[in-house]
Specification:
Elements (H helix, E strand, L loop, with lengths): L8 H28 L5 H27 L4 H9 L7 H10 L11
Helix pairs in contact: 1-2, 1-4, 2-3
Length: 109
């Protein structure tokens, strides 16, 4: 019986998904404050930079995870595209975890 708990690069992918989702949330709140309430643009200034870094980090980790965990091409494409709409990386990570795509296959003896 195998476990669906992420290991190694799978854990890094989970962290990248969470960071990307949290910075998206901060950026959305910052955009609300800037454009709707017109109170401050500090949220956009700060979270825009953080999200830019998180986005690049997520894409790099996704490609590394896809190579290391031997994802099919469609899973890699979906994972990369999930970073574009807000907050899609978090449900994607949950789905990949349930499918067992974040664990490495046991080494052959």
């Amino acid at each position: 019986m195998t476990s669906n708990k992420p290991t190694g690069i799978g854990k890094l992918f989970v962290a990248a998904c969470l960071i990307e989702g949290l910075t998206w949330t901060g950026l959305l709140i910052g955009m609300f404050l800037k454009y709707t309430t017109e109170t401050t643009d500090l949220g956009v200034w700060l979270f825009g930079r953080l999200h830019g870094f998180a986005f690049m980090f997520y894409v790099v980790v996704t490609v590394l995870a896809a190579l290391r965990l031997r994802w099919p091409w469609w899973a890699t494409l979906i994972a990369v595209l999930a970073a574009v709409p807000p907050l899609v990386t978090i449900p994607l990570e949950i789905w990949y975890k349930r499918r067992g795509m974040l664990t490495e296959a046991p080494a052959a003896r």
